[in-house]
Design goal:
Layout lengths: L6 E16 L4 E17 L3 E5 L6 H8 L7 E6 L2 E2 L5 H10 E4 L3 H4 L6 H12 L4 H14 L16 H13 L5 E5 L7 H18 L2 E6 L2 H4 L5 E6 L2 E7 H4 L10 H12 L29 H5 L5 E4 L2 E3 L5
Parallel strand pairs: 3-8, 3-9, 6-7, 7-8
Antiparallel strand pairs: 1-2, 1-4, 4-5, 9-10, 10-12, 11-12
Length: about 325
């Protein structure tokens, strides 16, 4: 067991390849390198924002952490326990402390269940409650997320998108988790509702003293929510740094060129990146970003940069930053 006094979640060299099989004998002809050697850590009561374009591997990484799919190699520790070696019984206990809020609240809530059954399913799966205790707990959870007592007997279709996401959040915090994984948890909501849900999550994070892994394709969503930012590109980390350094105007030329492009896209409301990212099936040699990077040089085409510590907890995979 590793020392988890500082890190609640720690990933080391995690890989997940999806084989492409063809031919009469169904042989593997190539691999989709969805997660290709990722190192990450999240401290106690800390929020890490994970950002990257669609298809970069961030959702696959979250599903590996949640044990919805199995990694090919690497290690994952949560609260001092090795997730990769945990059996079903152990995972059942671990999941009390590691919960998730998915992107689409309508699809993540069973439409046949009233809110009462949705919360009961989550609570009774991991805890044992008397009927009277459950009722008080369920109403308390709804109150925590800004919904009234009357919500408990309604179906998901009777709520707005923002209200459904509040129900999903209530379900996630019902087991008193140590960490929430927020997988694009506000991306399907209108801008005004996004802010309301982000404010709610900030309040709950402080009240419950929990850590968060917040996954988004929008860097601006993570700006006021995250302690640190991890930038993922084609299955690997391009940059991991304190949020204050990432968003500092004076530091723009010291961040990874991909991160710089993401920041400028948000500020100028237009895409500053040229071209589409390469496929995870056909990752370019050298730096994975060099085909779109305005600062590329010959070495970028030939040699892949390692993720190295540059300054004050700021890690960058770039030859010139």
């Amino acid at each position: 067991m590793i020392d988890m006094s500082e890190n609640l979640l720690q990933l080391k060299e995690v890989k997940k390849y999806f084989p492409i099989k063809k031919g009469l004998f169904y042989k593997t002809v190539a691999n989709v390198k969805a997660v290709d050697g990722v190192d990450l850590s999240i401290g106690q009561r800390q929020t890490l924002g994970l950002v990257g374009e669609s298809g970069c591997g961030k959702t696959t990484l979250s599903r590996i952490i949640l044990r919805l799919i199995k990694e090919d190699s690497g290690s994952i520790y949560f609260n001092g326990r090795n997730l990769c070696a945990a059996n079903k019984k152990e995972l059942r206990q671990i999941r009390k402390g590691l919960q998730v809020v998915f992107q689409d609240p309508f699809n993540s809530l069973d439409p046949k269940f009233r809110v009462r059954e949705i919360l009961k399913e989550a609570l009774y799966a991991l805890e044992k409650y008397e009927t009277s205790e459950f009722e008080d707990r369920a109403v308390g959870l709804l109150d925590q997320v800004g919904l009234g007592r009357d919500a408990i007997d309604r179906f998901p279709y009777e709520f707005s998108g923002g209200e459904r996401q509040r129900i999903a959040i209530a379900r996630a915090i019902s087991t008193n988790p140590k960490m929430l994984i927020l997988d694009e948890a506000v991306s399907s909501l209108d801008v005004l509702i996004q802010k309301q849900i982000l404010d709610l999550l900030l309040k709950l994070k402080d009240e419950l003293q929990i850590s968060c892994l917040f996954i988004s394709h929008n860097l601006n969503v993570l700006k006021n929510f995250s302690d640190r930012i991890a930038v993922m590109y084609l299955g690997k980390m391009a940059e991991v740094a304190p949020a204050l350094r990432i968003f500092s105007e004076d530091n723009l030329k010291n961040v990874h060129p991909y991160t710089e492009a993401l920041i400028l896209s948000g500020v100028r409301r237009k895409v500053s990146l040229k071209g589409e990212p390469e496929s995870l099936l056909n990752i370019p040699s050298g730096c994975r970003f060099h085909t779109r990077c305005p600062y590329r040089k010959d070495v970028c085409r030939k040699r892949e940069p390692a993720l190295e510590l540059k300054k004050n907890g700021h890690f960058i995979a770039c030859h010139f930053r």
